[in-house]
Amino acid sequence: MSFNDDEPIVASQDVSGEKPAAFLAGKTKATIINKTTAPLEETEFKVMLELTGAGSGNDRSGVDLVTVLDITENSQEEIENLVNALVANGGTNISAGLQTGLKVLNDRRLTSGRVVGIMLMSDGQQNAGGDAAQVPVGNVPVCTFGFGADHDPTVLNAIANNSVGGTFSDVRNQDNLSIAFSQCLAGLLTVVVQDLKLTVTRVESTIVKVSAGNYIQSKDDAAGSVTVSFGDLYIKEVRKVIVDLLLPASSPAGSDVLEITYTYSSGGKLFDANPIILTVSRTGRTSVEPEREEVMMEENRLRTAQMMKEARVMADDQKLGNARDKLVEAQNLLEDVVNDESNPLIEMLKSELQQIKRLMKSQEIYEKQGRTYALSSETSHNRQRYAAKGDDVEKLRMFATPLSPLLGPLEDRLPLFFRLFIWHNNS
């Protein structure tokens, strides 16, 4: 399908007003959320940016998907016999498996405009071939899946974190492996932009901090800019970024405080969005405009995710009492959130905290289940991307995007493969 990028592009313009400003440029929609006014004295100011994959999916990037679609009864029996004949020997060489996947991708002949990814599954501790966490994966996203009682969550999580946009899924119930796998595959099938980069540049302000999970940030001190590299973006997938600014003292007027732009590639072509200038009204009013609710909700998520990580580190140091206290503190802070209606995000965060706390009941439970769940939660929050967690693959679907309709022809075949694959790993 040919690349079509004929959507109207809005030229550089000032942004101000009470409602979030949204701009559709190419295949990505940018939404800017902030207070409209700021006091005259030096003050801190927050801006939340949302980048959303806005493509239709009809002209998505190409995916090379290789799978067996036609399985007759005779073929199924033959496959089962082949699986039954497999004999396990040697060790678990996760590094070799990862390197083999990378070699397959590197040896491709057709690469222009193609979406790639690796899905690595393991039920064992690496004990051969070196440390897979040290294997450089470049720009290839790697989704890792740990299942069984003996997999190594630390290594699998590190592999995912080493890649751009990779996630680690905790598949405690192996019957849920196809669900976790399908979400990752659906993402590859619905990539609308690649190599997405957001750049924010100070104008009449100082950039204090940019909160964007653990995506790579690069700073240009001379230009006063910060660039965040997100990698691929799926249809309807959202990346939220909070920019903390320090505004200098000012006279009553409108101040240009931040310049926003982004780039991406699609179909092998580079797209560069025109800059957006954010303007804020500096006023001497005695009343202070309250922070936007959307910004507060995202800050609650970031704070809760950080506290869950701190609790996980304490539990790793066998300080379970301190870890549980940290989780209770996070729960209490969420209870203090004032919201007129039940907020789905807050409710999911509460459920996540409750589950992690339950898995920290004892050091033994934590070692068997808690660490894996906590690491999967961390990677999901850091990447703002869905990752399966324990038995809650359907309940806690934070960051999940709609499954691609292209998965339809595969759904009836995937369970057979997974039944054979999982049965063999358990035998």
Description:
With 427 residues, the chain is α/β, with parallel strands linked by helices. The chain has three domains: 144 residues, Sandwich (Immunoglobulin-like); 122 residues, von Willebrand factor, type A domain (Rossmann fold, 3-Layer(aba) Sandwich); 105 residues, no CATH class. It has ten helices and 18 strands. The strands form four sheets. Strands 1, 4, 11, 13, 14, 16, 17 and 18 form an eight-stranded mixed sheet that branches. The chain has a five-stranded antiparallel sheet with strand order 2-3-5-15-12, with helices on one face. Helix 5 packs antiparallel against helix 6, helix 5 packs parallel to helix 7 and helix 5 packs antiparallel against helix 8. The N terminus and C terminus are likely disordered. This is VWFA domain-containing protein. It holds the Pfam family Vwaint. Keywords: Coiled coil. It comes from Camellia sinensis var. sinensis.
